[in-house]
Amino acid sequence: MMTPALLSAALLLLLLPGAPAEDSNQTPINIHVTNSVTSAPKQTYSTYVVYRGILLGAMWRLQDSNVGFSFTYTQDPNYGPFLVSVNGVSGCSADRTYWELLVKRTNETIRPDVGIGCYIPSANETIVLNFNKY
């Protein structure tokens, strides 16, 4: 027999809205992988984020879809996810190379002040993961 408190808790759980469905409110984005260090050809991928979803989620979705996109990152305790490699190409402090995050909008290209773990893409943005030197 359920106690009134347990019954109330069970009823509350039934009334709470769940997480949004994975396929509802999809925001389409493109991801371009470019290389400013070598003349490697640009690669373009199409994916999506869910409403208010982060770029990292779209990148995981793309990697899981087996379209030839892969990436690795490390988790910095102060700054969050730090992109290490894309499609097998890794940044290297000895070579002074890194993966740069850029966002192409209609009339401009910006460098967001947050990384892949916090950036929330807008519809039809082009995310540029550019291999570069510092």
TrEMBL record:
One of its GO terms (biological process) is cobalamin transport. InterPro entries: Cobalamin_Transport (IPR051588). Transmembrane segments: none annotated. The keyword Signal applies. It comes from the Eukaryota. Residues 1-21 form the signal peptide. Keywords: Signal. One of its GO terms (molecular function) is cobalamin binding. GO terms for cellular component: extracellular space. This is DUF4430 domain-containing protein. It comes from Zoarces viviparus.
